[in-house]
Amino acid sequence: MDERAARIALVEMARRLDADGLNHNATGNLSVRIEGGVLVTPTGIPAAALDPDDGVVLLQDGTPREGGGRLPTSEWRLHVAQYRRPGVGAVVHTHSLEATAAAAVGQPVPAVHYLVAAFGGVVLPVAPYATYGSIELADAVAATLSDRYRACLMASHGAVAVGPTLAAAAARARDVEWLCGVWRRARALGEPVILDDAELERVREQLASYGQPR
Predict the structure, then answer these.
(1) Apex 119 CA angle, 182 and 210, nearest 5
(2) Full-prediction pTM beyond 0.90?
(3) Which of 123, 134, 133 is nearest to 197 (CA)?
(4) How many domains, the chain?
(5) Catalytic residue among 3, 35, 66, 75, which?
(6) How many Å apart are CA 142 and CA 151, to the nearest integer?
(7) CA dihedral sign, ordered 35, 38, 43, 47
(8) Which of 15, 88, 121, 177 is 20 to 30 Å from the Cα of 149, by its Cα?
(9) 87 in helix, strand or coil?
C-alpha cells in the first residue's frame, strides 16, 4: 500500500474501531505493511485525536525510520513479529469488551459456533500472559498464532488479529469480539454444544470459496 494512503487508512480504521467499541481512549493499536517497513499507530494518542502524520514507520528490525516525530505504539514488537509470517499485510490489536473479558478467563474459546474455523483451528487460542509491550508478549503471541492461526486472545489483556489487508484484519477482530460474546451468553444459558473437529474441517473447506469471485 502507498504510504500516504496507508496513513489515512490507519487513522480511519482506528476511529472506526473506537466508535464501534472495539477500543477506547488510547487503547489498542494497528499496523499495515508498506514498502520498506511497517506503519504503526503512535503510543498514547486517542483515535479521535490521530492525524495521518502521527503514524510511525518501522524498518524490518523494528527501528523507527529517521525523521519521524512520534513514538510507536508500545506493542510495536508484537506487530513487527507478525510481519515475518507470509501473507500478513496488517495487524489489529484490540481491547474490545467481550474479547478482553474472555481473555481474562485465560482459556481458549471452544467451537460454540462454526466461525471458529475462520481463525485457522478448532478453538480461538489464548496466548499466555506477559507484560504489555514486552518481547515476552510478542514471543507468546507469535508462538500462539504460529503459521496457523489468524487471531488469538492475549490472557488478561485483549485480542490480536492478522490479515492480508487492514480491512481483513479488522473484520477478523470484529469476528473475535462476536464469538466471545456468543460464548459468554451461551454459558449463561447452559452448557454449550461444541462442534467436532470434522465439522470444523468441512466448514474450513467451504470458507475457502466463500464470497464473491475476485
Answers:
(1) 95
(2) yes
(3) 123
(4) 1
(5) 75
(6) 11
(7) positive
(8) 15
(9) coil
